[in-house]
Design goal:
Distance between the termini: 22 Å
Strand order of the largest sheet: 1-2-3-4-5-6-7
CATH class: Alpha Beta
CATH architecture: Alpha-Beta Barrel
Shape: globular
Number of domains: 1
Order of helices and strands: HHEHEHHEHEHEHEHEHH
Strand content: 5-15%
Structural class: alpha/beta
Number of strands: 7
Helix content: 40-55%
CATH superfamily: Metal-dependent hydrolases
């Protein structure tokens, strides 16, 4: 089976595994999409997120080219809290908005803002600069009325506070969720969706698996975060969206349901969020 992947950096997959691997992957998803259309259903999709203001155009060219984006690809545009983006959050945000406007002039509307948020593990800039960059993207998502895809690492309390303070009506997705049950409940209480990646399968991830089991089905997403977070037994190797199958199998077991039912649930949630 081919599964919906709610977060995969396809340009990085091409860099690490080659364009031929990416082309074969897109072919697999194209066939799955066509088969789903014949069954009068919605096929599996991939959400490709942004991490810097200038990456939207190159990703459009890589994934779409002259024929346009495949019907199963959704693009987000966002700014990860890197040293470069944090040097001047206002300039970074202006550049992001300009890139989104340029894409819109070509008839392409991004499906979400992100990934953006807080990373206190790498701590590539002060918390104040990270907050400013994150708040700007939350505001942009609200103005555009699209979901916000959130990166949060070792920063649960501040992430919660900034989301609560923003009071946006757009959906908020905590991607590659990395906290436990208490934090999951707190994010869910704010109305967030939670997306789980291959680290769910890693040794020592009991708290993460507990969190995944308690998420309501209508707020659940699954991802690879390709080329990272490959589920066991391929941990440490570069991942593609095809590797998400093992995460689906684990989550189905955790939640006591069948894989086809889980696949339908996650795909329905992704279509609802990203169009």
């Amino acid at each position: 089976m081919i599964f919906t992947d709610s977060h995969a950096h396809l340009s990085l997959v091409a860099e690490e595994l080659g364009r031929e691997t990416l082309s074969a992957l897109l072919g697999d998803y194209a066939r799955a999409w066509s088969e789903a259309e014949l069954r009068d259903g919605s096929g599996p999709i991939i959400l490709d997120p942004g991490v810097e203001p200038g990456d939207l155009g190159p990703r459009l060219e890589l994934l779409g080219g002259p024929r346009g984006l495949p019907p199963f690809i959704r693009l987000a545009a966002g700014i990860w809290p890197s040293p470069e983006s944090l040097a001047s959050p206002k300039d970074s945000l202006r550049s992001l908005e300009a890139a989104i406007a340029e894409a819109a002039s070509r008839g392409i509307r991004v499906a979400a803002i992100g990934e953006g948020g807080l990373d206190y593990h790498h701590m590539d800039g002060p918390a104040e600069a990270q907050a400013a960059l994150f708040e700007g993207q939350l505001s942009l998502a609200a103005r555009m009325r699209v979901p916000m895809i959130v990166h949060s690492r070792d920063a649960a309390a501040d992430t919660l506070a900034l989301i609560e303070g923003a009071r946006i009506l757009s959906p908020v997705i905590i991607h590659c969720f990395s906290y436990g049950g208490d934090e999951a409940r707190a994010f869910l209480d704010l109305g967030c969706w939670l997306s789980f990646a291959g680290n769910l399968s890693y040794k020592g991830s009991e708290a993460l698996r507990t969190a995944c089991a308690l998420v309501p089905q209508e707020r659940l997403l699954l991802e690879t975060d390709s080329p990272y977070m490959n589920p066991v037994p391929r941990r440490g190797k570069s991942a593609t969206p095809l590797d998400v199958e093992r995460t689906y199998s684990l989550v189905a077991e955790l939640r006591g349901i069948g894989v086809p039912e889980l696949a339908e649930t996650v795909s329905r949630n992704a279509h609802m969020l990203f169009g």
